[in-house]
Please model this.
Amino acid sequence: MSAKKDIRSYSLIHLQDWFTEMGEKTFRAKQVYEWLWKKSAHDFDVMSNLPIALRDKLKSSFTINGITVVDKQISKDGTIKSSFRLHDGHLIEGVLIPADDRMTACVSSQVGCSLTCKFCATGKMDRIRNLNPDEIYDQVVHIRNWANQHYGKPLTNIVFMGMGEPLLNYGNVLNGIAKITGEEGLHMASDRITVSTAGIAKMIKKLADDEVKFNLALSLHAANDVKRNAIMPINESNALETVIDALIYFKAKAKGKLTFEYIAFKDFNDGIEDARELLAICKKVSAKVNIIEYNPIGDGLFKKANADKIDQFQRYLEKNGVTATVRRSRGKDIDAACGQLANKKHEDALMVESK
Model:
């Protein structure tokens, strides 16, 4: 007997073909599709406008590989972080970041990551696999529900700044975003979505060629190749000049806004000379700068920059015409750094298995 197929891997057209082959009316395919993507159904039995016999036929042929919440931590500042278990047992993370003017979901795009950035907890994990579009979509649904349940507010923003490098899972990420933004899905606004990349030049150009409507963030964190090579090995094959050229191309062709993400590390990239080098990049390609307080991952390699140096860094950029904001560290009392919670759960599982 063949294994059941994941119904959410089917396009509407393929689903219609299946209904035709089964001797069913094709309009039923659209009803099922709406249950899956607009109503976020994970159970065929809730599809109340389908005959029971058809629901049984669907259950015998298909599965819905939803993600489940394994652990959920709520910070004193309101941040909610969870590890999610996928259908094959692997773990990923998602975060709700509440603010007065927005509710932001931070989602993952891969199980683990292959880029080994020195400051990132996820970088200490192997990349196991890419997430499917439905697994990306499910994270948003769970986090949207938390926003409603805990704060009585709708989800307003989505950032792909969780585990993994989104542009190394290009097709699935764009497909997931299509389900999140499309009328047949959650119908969220594209300009409220930001995809963050460590800087893969050819894929940034592909985003431009595909004329995406969402925003792009570059995880910059150092404004010269020597420092960036030291903390982000991807820079060795995607030097800053090449990445900047790709960003200029992106700005010319795509509709999304551009942001530079810049984690301030104590005595490494937090000086005025560093700000001056960053300013030079901003003059080549206009972008807002988010200066981020570092959330240490416990290995002692990097420390959070002093608040006064961060403020000086910001003032220098602002004085020279660059919009720069300081993003204060959130969830300090929970496993808030990207990859920490999934790493902890993975290690706990290994300990149980070894007993």
User: Anything to note?
Assistant: The domain at 68-350 is CATH 3.20.20.70 (TIM Barrel). Residues 292 and 327 are 5 Å apart (CA to CA). Residues 343-355 have pLDDT under 50 and may be disordered.
